[in-house]
Amino acid sequence: MSETDSIRTRPRVARLGFVERIRFRLRAEREIDELTRDHAREDRIRAEAAVRLAPGPWRVGELFRRRP
């Protein structure tokens, strides 16, 4: 028995294909973006824009926007 026989090693993981790597990267970027967003700043900017901009029918969607 050699010195390395008793050391357990993890089985080799199959390499991810191109599409899986892209999917993983996009998911990671979305999670990082969500974690680093400044929600208070976004709300301040929207409030300021609501005061400065004249409301119009194209702004109806902003009324129904879900807030966290």
Task: Write up this protein.
With 68 residues, the protein is mostly helical. It has a domain at 15-48. Helix content is 54%, strand content 0%. The termini are far apart.
Number of strands: 0
Mean pLDDT: 77
Largest sheet: none
Range of helix content: 40-55%
Instruction: List the helices and strands in order.
Output: HHH
Strand content: under 5%
Which structural category fits the helices and strands? mainly alpha
Distance from first to last alpha carbon: 59 Å
- H/I helix tally: 3
Radius of gyration: 24 Å
In one word, what is the shape?
A: elongated
Taking pLDDT < 50 over at least 5 consecutive residues as the criterion, the unreliable ranges are none
SSE inventory with pairings:
Elements: H1 18-36, H2 39-52, H3 60-63
Which key phrases capture this entry?
0% strand; mainly alpha; 68 residues; 3 helices
Give a brief outline of the structure.
With 68 residues, the protein is mostly helical.
